[in-house]
Structures are given as structure tokens and as C-alpha cells.
Amino acid sequence: MRPITEADDPLIAEIIRTSLKKYHLNIPGTVYFDPELDHLSKYYHSLPEKRGYFIATNHEGQVIGGVGIAEFNGFDNCAELQKIYLIDQEKGKGLGKCLLELAEDFARSLGYQSLYLETHTNLETAIAMYEKNGFQRIHKPKSVVHSTMNRFYRKRL
């Protein structure tokens, strides 16, 4: 795993969009239509003291997924877990948990005290992973950006 580069932008955007299509979430109100999605490196590098995105690669160096952390203003000292995705061929191997742990460690290194995430009931496997790793379901915060998301979680770091 390594920090995102500009060369990764189209690859990770395609992984995210492919996954969202598979789960019928290629609709308005999801990350599918985020203006930053095609330029994630620029977005995450613009505030390195508050944000970061990490790319997972396989043994051949191919991009297979990623995870991001960025500031979240809905709670004090809270970051948002963002855009945690893997290609289908790599799911079920423990890589999602590795990405999650990397994100948590990075958030702690930036001084965040909790992590927030929003997801959708269509993403059952992801929800199970979040809950297994200590995320607690919460009510929808007022500051939610992706209006289609219907599950909200928080974890103290």
C-alpha cells in the first residue's frame, strides 16, 4: 500500500464506479458522481495535514483498491473514512481489513479521535466488516453529503 499518485486517478475511479454499478449505486447522491472522483490525488494532496488516500496494489503492481481519510465537520476531531474499495478478485482475502487498519492508523497520526463513515444497505459485506471492527451505527448526521447513503457509523480511535 502506498499514497495515491496522479497516475492512479483513472484506475481507482474505475474501480469505485465499477463497484457502485454492481451494487446498483451508480445513482445521484453517491460518490459515483462526486466531482473529485476523477482527480482523487489532487483532492487528497491539497490538505495533507487533514487528508490522505492510499492505494493497494497486487504483487504485479496493479492497482486493486484504495482507502481515504479526510476531515469531517459533523463531530469534533473526527475524520471520515472515504472511498474504501477493492476489485472483486481481491475481496475475501483480508485486504479490506488491512485498508481499514491503515486508514485508522493514518487518522490517529493526524490527531483525529474518531472516524465516521456513511454507506448503504446494498453493501452488506462492507457493513459486516465495519461492525466487526468496532464501528457503531449512529443516526444520520446533519452534515451528510451523499444523500442516497442510508447507514451511518462512528468509531472512537
Model regions low in confidence, pLDDT < 50 over at least 5 residues: none
**Strand composition percent:** 25-35%
Structural class: alpha+beta
Give the helix level as a range of percent: 25-40%
Number of distinct helices: 4
Mean pLDDT: 92
Q: How far apart are the first and last residues' alpha carbons, in Å?
A: 21 Å
The whole-angstrom Rg is: 14 Å
Strand order of the largest sheet: 1-2-3-4-5-7-6
Q: What overall geometry do the principal axes of the alpha carbons give?
A: globular
Can you count the beta strands?
7
Largest sheet composition: 7 strands, mixed
- Provide the succession of SSEs: EHHEEEHEHEE
List the helices and strands and how they pair.
Layout: E1 2-3, H1 9-22, H2 40-45, E2 52-57, E3 63-72, E4 78-86, H3 95-109, E5 114-119, H4 124-132, E6 136-138, E7 151-156
Parallel strand pairs: 4-5
Antiparallel strand pairs: 1-2, 2-3, 3-4, 5-7, 6-7
Mind explaining what this structure looks like?
The chain has 157 residues and is α+β, with helices and mostly antiparallel strands. It is built from four helices and seven strands; from the N terminus they run E-H-H-E-E-E-H-E-H-E-E. The model has no long low-confidence stretch (mean pLDDT 92).
In brief:
This protein has 157 residues and is an alpha+beta fold.
List its traits.
157 residues; alpha+beta; seven-stranded mixed β-sheet; globular
